[in-house]
Design a protein that fits this description.
Blueprint (H helix, E strand, L loop, with lengths): L28 E7 L27 H18 L6 E8 L7 H15 L1 E11 L6 H10 L3 E7 L3 H6 L6 H13 L3 E8 L6 H13 L4 E6 L7 H7 L8 H17 L3 E4 L2 E3 L7 H7 L3 E5 L4 E4 L2 E5 L3 H9 L5 E5 L3 H12 L6 E2 L10 H7 L5 H6 L2 E2 L3 H5 L1 H9 L1
Parallel strand pairs: 1-2, 1-9, 2-3, 3-4, 4-5, 5-6
Antiparallel strand pairs: 6-8, 7-8, 10-11, 11-12, 13-14
Length: 406
């Protein structure tokens, strides 16, 4: 189960935006549709997801209709605030979106497109567990307007998948990728490194298997131990070892070397794309501070500096919408200092880097120290006046952020 929601101010029952908020309709706008259902809870996961035994008071088959009520509410809220604009990206995440019938996902997509409109060439992504992907499912999604599938591969090594509580068979990843390709979709695969018992050789096996699938995009995330998860409890009891920082660094370097040699270029610390057009435009919207509305239980939204988040449990989410109320549990408007910290944190992780002029004036001299430590690219810093991470800087990205903000 996911952790507690943030503290914040009460959100109004009607969902209205503050009267003094001034949204800019030139800012890109995205929709995130959260599908909070999973067959099995993975031991490392702290996302807001629920297995069938945890869905008291909510029905999976009613979910699409419930979420569409929030879409109607959002349309009214944004229209009243003169903030309505076409979607640049749509992302179905979870959980496992493809546990829902493909027709339900298509109905949800049609709902947000009808409410907001969608730009030509928009990116529409569905996350998928390999075991839930069939040619029929993918064809239905493609016909509905989906353009991209993000497949949760995680590893190609059975004992690593078992350590992560992943239930799919490695060979099913290839089946899913080929189904997506045959339907004309772009393909991304997600990998995780640093699982208990995973060796560098295991990780290299997974990288090679991912590259053999010839995807357009690869995400590679270091395993992070989140409080409250099964894996955190196992580590605390000494049943499995904690991730080794040095080994994870070696794994990251191996990923960058192999992916670069195969023609992929990094554009965010944990993401590589075959071409610029294969980058995840939806995730870039988050990292660049664009506007988005997050639909579904526990989903977060952002418009013109205002952030809000929905109640977590699907039953509470449905009850609020059934009553005609917003499902938002709270909201906040971060101050200038908090916005700057977030800007540095996110923008510095991107390949274009962070403009030095955006760093607080009394901290800009710290860039020189980052240069001497080999964490920042000297050409970018001296000629372009941007903080762009080197490979060593990517390994120590958190330290760079601390140096520029503390």
């Amino acid at each position: 189960m996911a952790g507690a929601l943030p503290l914040g101010d009460p959100a109004p029952a009607d969902g209205r935006l503050p009267a003094d908020l001034t949204p800019d309709i030139a800012v890109p706008f995205s929709a995130y549709l959260h599908v909070p259902f999973c067959r099995v809870r993975c031991g490392y996961c702290d996302f807001n997801t629920y297995t069938s035994g945890e869905l008291r008071g909510a029905k999976q088959e009613d979910y699409a209709s419930t979420l569409l009520r929030e879409v109607a509410l959002a349309q009214g809220v944004l229209s009243d605030a003169d903030a309505l604009r076409p979607l640049d990206t749509v992302f179905f995440g979870g959980g496992t979106p493809t546990l829902l019938p493909a027709g339900d996902l298509g109905r949800m997509l049609d709902g947000v497109v009808s409410a907001f409109g969608i730009r030509d060439g928009a990116e529409v992504t569905v996350e998928a567990n390999p075991d839930t992907v069939t040619p029929e499912v993918v064809r239905t999604l493609a016909d509905a307007g989906v353009t991209r599938m993000s497949i949760g591969m995680q590893s190609a090594v059975p004992h690593v998948l078992a350590a992560l509580d992943r239930t799919h068979r490695p060979e099913n990843v290839s089946t899913a990728v080929h189904a997506a390709r045959d339907a004309g979709l772009d393909v991304s695969v997600d990998l995780i490194y640093g699982a208990p018992g995973e060796s560098l050789a295991d990780w290299e096996t997974s990288l090679d298997a991912a590259l053999a699938l010839e995807p357009d995009h690869i995400s590679a995330y270091a395993l992070i131990i989140e409080d409250g998860t099964k894996l955190a409890r196992q580590i605390r009891r000494g049943e499995v070892p904690a991730p080794d920082d040095d080994l994870q660094a070696d794994m990251y370097e191996a990923a960058d070397a192999r992916l670069s040699a195969a023609g992929f270029a990094w554009y965010e610390v944990s993401n590589w794309a075959r071409h610029d057009g294969n980058r995840s435009r939806h995730n870039l919207a988050y990292w660049r501070g664009s506007d988005w509305w997050g639909f579904g239980p526990g989903a977060h939204s952002h418009v013109a500096g205002l952030r809000w988040w929905n109640v977590k449990h699907p039953a509470a989410y449905a009850q609020r919408l059934d009553a005609g109320d917003s499902p938002a549990a709270g909201r906040e408007r971060p101050d200038a200092e908090a916005r700057l910290l977030e800007r540095v944190l996110l923008q510095s992780r991107l390949v274009e880097g962070l403009a030095i002029d955006e760093i607080a004036a009394d901290r800009r001299d710290r860039v020189a120290g980052l240069l001497s430590d080999g964490l920042v690219d000297p050409t970018a810093a001296l000629r372009e006046r941007r903080v762009r991470l080197t490979l060593r800087g990517r390994l120590l990205a958190d330290a760079v952020v601390r140096a520029l903000t503390d």
